[in-house]
Automatic annotation (TrEMBL):
The lineage of its organism: Bacteria, Bacillati, Actinomycetota, Actinomycetes, Streptosporangiales. InterPro entries: CAT-like_dom_sf, Condensation_dom. Gene3D superfamilies: Chloramphenicol acetyltransferase-like domain, Nonribosomal peptide synthetase, condensation domain. PANTHER family: FATTY ACID SYNTHASE, NONRIBOSOMAL PEPTIDE SYNTHETASE. Coiled coil: none annotated. It comes from the Bacteria. This is Condensation domain-containing protein. Pfam families: Condensation.
Length: 543
């Protein structure tokens, strides 16, 4: 069995998965659907999938907490494949089977990160569906798997053996590079950028908007605009930038208006595949990068777009680093400022060349309450999808920072701001854009925080937490007045701390809480006695 440390690109997802309770971890799953060409049999489909698992070690890898977070590669064997028919024969149908496969949490330490299902009619395979653990795959990896499946299938149809290129590198090769001195230099330079930018962020971007937790805990709305597609491209062409940056600039303007902050910061995502000598490794290789845009001088849209473009380029140069070290940096900055520094907004841009809207007018819809997302500890998440004939803006927002009216006005404001700049003569300043999206007034001055009545932790709770942190991080001594990070705790080992607490019969803490600036002695007040977790069982989360 081969083992290696977690690759840098896997660490964001490692922390994300362990922040979610098991019932909500399906939010991170990736589903790949492959239409099986006519003439390919079920046995041949199984052979194709087993061959993929033999070629790519990442498909037969498990992920372990102890003795330290690592990935372990199992020897090759046949990949288990479920088979379900579209015919009514008294067995569970495709929808029911796929629902179970896609919603059940992965057993990280005991299950390969791939579940396969063949949908057949009359014994003939029509579709192959793969449910993949995001620790193992990213968009590039999924595309590669799809192409290799198609190549093999066409080889069976033509009765000519498919010739797939040899696999040059595996995730363990990348992990070995990331443990080298060369990679350490890259990470140190990137970390300096993060430290500088985090220090310039407001501690809480939504300080003037944040209120008490409400029900529902979060909202999710989508605006689909055919007009945004061509207009965004024209504006991008006029300013010589990518169309995605036009939407990010509109987001920045709306967020500056809504929050009243002089700078807007958010996390977006980059693949990092060109940042090292192993761009072809099949594994999850993306991670967040921090974008901070200065809006203090009320820039016009053209100037704002230029700043967004420059900031993106600089951020991308410093995005390749282990994300758990970013979490520790933010925690230390929170300790320095005396409260949590929130990097609570994410923005993602995805091209969906196969998706099509088919409408001519803008459509605004409310989606079901995003219960799984609400457990991530984020304030907002904006996803921009560029379809063949429209742009989709999809916003998740915690109810503590945005009510329903604000969510709708935010999305409609983004659309209106881009469309207004289809006119080459238009160049609205952020304050001028306020008329496009009249948000409710902010609290001025900010409302004083409600008095916090701190519970007094029991001595047993403090001792249990201290011992769990000490054991997981191999520390000799811990001061309960320190935060987890200041005490020497590693963010990557927080899941191990939670598992150790479970074995000792304690629960109630989350990964997000442990990686914050709160002293361990105060965090112990959140612990509550619970059933002991057997030492042979490593839970994904103790919530």
């Amino acid at each position: 069995m081969k083992s290696a440390s977690l690759c840098w690109g896997q660490r964001y997802m490692w922390l994300r998965v362990h922040q979610l309770p098991p019932a909500h971890q399906h939010e991170t799953h990736v589903v790949l659907r492959f239409e099986v060409p006519a003439g390919v049999t079920a046995a041949q489909c199984r052979a194709m999938l087993t061959y993929l698992a033999r070629r790519h070690e990442v498909l037969r890898t498990t992920y372990h907490l102890e003795p330290e977070p690592e990935q372990r590669v199992d020897p090759p064997r046949a990949l288990p494949v479920s088979e379900v028919t579209t015919e009514r024969d008294g067995t569970a149908g495709p929808a029911e089977v796929l629902e179970e496969l896609s919603r059940r949490p992965f057993d990280l330490a005991g299950e390969w990160p791939i579940r396969a299902c063949l949908i057949t009619t009359g014994g003939v395979p029509k579709q192959c569906v793969l449910v993949l653990n995001h620790l193992a795959v990213d968009v590039w990896t999924v595309g590669k798997l799809r192409r290799e499946l198609r190549t093999q299938a066409l080889g069976f149809v033509s009765r000519r053996p498919a010739a797939l290129p040899p696999v040059r590198h595996q995730p363990s090769d990348l992990a070995r590079h990331e443990a080298s001195a060369d990679a350490a230099i890259v990470a140190t330079r990137a970390m300096a950028y993060w430290q500088e930018e985090v220090a310039r962020l407001p501690r809480d971007p939504f300080a003037l908007r944040r209120g008490p937790a409400r029900e529902p805990a979060a909202r999710h709305a989508t605006l689909i605009s055919p007009a945004l597609l061509d207009t965004g491209r024209r504006v991008a062409g006029r300013y010589g930038v990518w169309p995605s940056l036009v939407h990010f600039a509109a987001y920045t303007a709306m967020m500056a208006l809504y929050t009243g902050q002089e700078s807007v910061g958010f996390l977006t995502f980059v693949s990092n595949r060109e940042s090292h000598p192993y761009p072809d490794v099949m594994t999850c290789m993306f991670s967040p990068m921090l974008v901070r845009v200065d809006c203090a001088d009320d820039p016009a849209f053209g100037e704002l777009l230029g700043r967004v473009s420059e900031t993106f380029d600089r951020a991308k140069e410093h995005s390749y680093l282990p994300y758990d070290k970013v979490v520790e940096t933010v925690s230390r900055e929170g300790s320095r400022r005396g409260g949590e520094v929130r990097l609570g907004s994410e923005v993602n841009f995805i091209k969906q060349r196969t998706e099509e809207y088919g409408g001519r007018r803008t459509a605004f819809t409310w989606n079901p309450v995003p219960g799984s997302w609400a457990h991530c500890g984020l304030d907002t998440y904006l996803r921009v999808d560029e379809w063949r004939d429209a742009v989709s803006l999809s916003l998740h927002a915690a109810s503590s920072v945005m009510d329903a009216a604000a969510v709708e006005r935010f999305l409609r404001g983004m659309e209106a701001l881009v469309l207004a700049h289809d006119d080459p003569a238009a160049d609205l300043r952020i304050t001028e854009a306020a008329r496009l999206s009249p948000f409710a007034p902010r609290a001025t001055p900010p409302l004083p925080p409600a008095p916090v009545i701190s519970a007094v932790p029991s001595g047993e709770a403090v001792q249990a937490l201290i011992e769990a942190v000490r054991r997981a991080n191999s520390l000799a001594h811990i001061d309960p007045s320190d935060s987890y990070t200041l005490a020497g705790g590693q963010a990557l080992r927080v899941p191990q701390v939670l598992a150790e607490l479970g074995r000792r019969g304690w629960g109630g803490l989350t990964l997000h809480q442990l990686t914050g600036p709160t002293p361990l002695g105060a965090l112990a007040a959140r612990l509550a006695p619970g059933p002991r977790t057997p030492s042979t069982q490593i839970p994904s989360n103790t919530e």
